[in-house]
Amino acid sequence: MLPTTSLNYDGTFNGLLTCIFTNYEEKLKITSINPPDIKNGDLFSESREVITDTSKAQRVWKAFKRYVSNKSLKAVYYAYLSENPGIELEILKYFQHTFQHKKCIHGDFANLNVLQISQTAKKVGREKHRMEAFVRFQLTKDNIYFATIEPDFNVLPLIKKHFTSRYSDQQWIIYDTRRKFGLYYDLQKTKVICIDFSEKKDVPAENKNFFGNTELEYQKLWQNYFKATTIKSRINTRLHNQHVPKRYWKYLIEKNSLSN
Amino acid sequence: MMFDRIKEKLEILADAAKYDVSCSSSGSKRSNKNKGLGNSDGMGICHSYTEDGRCVSLLKILLTNHCIFDCAYCVTRRSNDIQRAAFKVQEVVDLTINFYRRNYIEGLFLSSGIFKDPDFTMERLIQVAKKLRLEENFNGYIHLKSIPGTSDELMREAGLYADRLSVNIEIPTISGLKKLAPEKDHSDFIKPMEKVKNEIIQYKSEKKIIKSTPIYAPAGQSTQMIVGATGESDREVMLSANHYYKNYNMKRVYYSGYVPIRSDPRLPSMGSQVPLLRENRLYQTDWLMRFYGFKVEELLNQEFPNLDIEVDPKLSWALRNPQHFPIDINRAEKEILMRIPGVGLKSVSKILDARKYRKLNYGHLKAIGVAFNRARYFIICDSRGWESSDLDSGKIKSLILRNSVGKFRKEYTSQLSLF
Ligand code: SF4
Q1: Beta-carbon separation of A133 and B47 below 8 A
Q2: Which of A3, B71, B218, B397 has the fewest CB atoms below 10 angstroms from its CB?
Q3: Shortest CA distance to A83 belongs to which of A8, A12, A158, A6?
């Protein structure tokens, strides 16, 4: 029996691709691929650190690209952003499948691996759309439109394009408080930033002093609008909660009562 | 900005606008040029949902709820004793921009009561749109109501700034309209519709020759019909909808279950239920017509003038037409697959993809997302047996109903008991 290996990588997409490269280069039998903080190696497999190598990553990606459609490329990248435990191994399997059949397997929904990648990608896509919809900017005294999010998946890289092309004449920041990085658009381009919010009062959303009076007035107007636009005789709470699951309410100014 | 005053107006004028069900912000394409504000990329975004489950995508308000008309079905009618208010043009512009910058909305949906006369009203609506486009460099979505009776020149101008224009036909039959809005003439509704249609056609043909032809209402026009106010049948509603789709190139027809707002011998009594389920069935029929290749006469005809409330219209059609089934999942063409109950457009395209790799069986179909409880009686695939080979339509229907937890189950058991 071949000895099995579990790989540890730095959590980046290129890192994952390097793992896949390593798998082929050294003909390994891999039982798990783990991002930092998660060590999944079992007693019987050898554990190894993989150093991200962009040129190796590029080579794998290029080879993969030769066979597959854009849908496949997107599905794999989206699935990776899910950060679901074990998704790396599924992605490896997906590559193996593709290389073995020498063709795009995206439509083979009766294959469990393909179905899982495509369903995971779909969930990530849904989260992306939700964030595009539910981000609520608040205008700070420094004239920056500021929003924090805490998405289920790492969708910040996916929503960058949408916000950059839509809000190109205002400065804005969208900060992922769970993953501790954000996007900052400075009227020229959108950059990745890290801010230290170690104290709660440093988080703008938690501290009204960051915002001017007009900001609160507009929030109130929006809350009022939202109330006025509901048709009472048609209230359908089940349908409503299905569209906006409770865990998203925290973003929505209109859902947070006027009292605070 | 005088926030208190604005707040009051907003409450009145949003409240009055909410009966217009359209909130779509899709179908337009405006990119953000020269670092302006906003874009519309074809797919509208729902930024929130009201407690009645409707998408909130646009700031939907009336410019004013003063009106010289007295249409029976409308809260804004002149004889109604309500608070009246009117926005200034600049106020609407400021609200739209400030909401948009905070990512609350995709744009503006501006309608109005008719003050003075149709042209005077329409001109104000156009002013708002023009300011947004030219002064604020705004590329978000703008939907303007075409005021019935507006002149052709103004309708031409409106389309230069708006993404979508709509006239609500409101009452599906001409006789119903006469009864409920005696001061209004059917042709007043048709005139702006006709003009917008012709402008769009002209734009499309000129665009081919002259690249710089100014864009005209890129998201087309839509209309809305109130159902359940005048005793019309589902067949009449859908024939009317079909007429507008065909003859005026409507992008969408909306159906709005009548919400009782007053007691009037011509209307359903106060406290009668909003026909939500009927409304839902009409939308399903609309989709079958537009995307699934069904003709109105197949779904609704003289013998069958009203939709079955208990089951969706596709299933209802299949039960009435058992001669078309079973359908072979692994062989049937796309158009045929689309006719299977419980198989939506997404499932159809997945089936077409997946069956290239292997023959599909029940397990595969479930994994793909087919509503198996409904579909199983109408298909054969790579699993043994055909579920309904010895069942008649009535049996199948009761089996499906027994095993389903319909979206509207609760609503319709209470609604059914009223019949
Ligand atoms: S003209 Fe329009 S706003 Fe005025 S009463 Fe009739 S439907 Fe209502």
Answers
A1: yes
A2: A3
A3: A12
Q: Domains in chain B: how many in total?
A: 2
Band (A1; pLDDT cuts 50, 70, 90) = low
Which residues of A are less than 8 Å from B19 in CB distance? 231
DSSP conformational letter for A185: E
B77 ligand 1 Cβ < 6 A: yes
pLDDT at A190: 95
Do B368 and B357 form a contact (C-beta atoms < 8 A)?
Answer: no
Cα separation, B109 vs B24, in Å, equals: 9
- Asked whether residue A119 falls in the same domain as residue A218, the answer is no
CA distance B82 to B76: 8
Closest CA to A145 of A166, A174, A172: A172
Res. B243 pLDDT band, cuts 50 70 90: very high
The C-alpha atoms of residue A247 and residue A255 are separated, in whole angstroms, by 11
DSSP B104-133: S-SEEEEE----S-HHHHHHHHHHHHHHHH
Residue A9: what are its φ and ψ, rounded to 5°? -130, 175
ipTM of the shown complex: 0.89
| Angle subtended by helix axes B186-209 and B152-161, to nearest 10 | 50
Amino acid present at B176: G
**Judging by DSSP bridges, how do beta strands A30-34 and A4-8 pair with one another?**
parallel
Q: Determine the Cα–Cα distance for residues A82 and B124; give it in Å rounded to an integer.
A: 49
Chain A closest-CA separation from residue B171 CA (Å): 20
Please state, in angstroms and rounded to a whole number, the distance separating the CA atoms of residues B83 and A96.
Answer: 69
Q: Which domain holds residue B323?
A: 313-415
Q: Which two tokens stand for residue A154?
A: 């790492």
Question: Testing the interface with B: which of A137, A171, A231, A257 to mutate, by most B Cβ within 10 A?
Answer: A231
Rounded to the nearest 5 degrees, what angle is found at the Cα of B131, between the Cα atoms of B129 and B134?
105
d(CA B346, CA B368): 9
Angle between helices B3-15 and B89-101 (to 10 degrees): 90
- In 3D space, the residue among A193, A200, A229 whose CA is nearest the CA of residue B11 turns out to be A229
pLDDT at site B264: 81
Domain that holds residue A203: 135-211
What pLDDT digit, counting tens, does each position of A172-203 carry? 999 999 999 999 999 999 999 988 766 555 55
Contact B75, B17 (CB under 8 A): no
A168/B47 Cβ within 8 A: no
Same-domain status, A233 and A167: no
The backbone region for A52, taken as left when phi is positive above 0, alpha when psi lies in -120 to 50, beta otherwise, is beta
| Distance in Å, alpha carbon of B140 to nearest chain A alpha carbon | 9
Cβ of B381 less than 6 Å from ligand 1: no
pLDDT in tens, B3-59: 899 999 999 999 988 877 777 777 777 888 778 898 887 778 888 888 777 788 999
Looking up residue B183, the CATH number of its domain turns out to be: 3.20.20
Q: Are A109 and A150 within one domain?
A: no
How many whole angstroms from B372 Cα to the centroid of ligand 1? 46
Question: Alpha-carbon torsion B81, B85, B86, B92, what sign?
Answer: negative
Selection from A110, A133, A13 nearest residue B102 by Cα: A133
Which of B95, B100, B103, B45 is CA-nearest to residue A224? B95
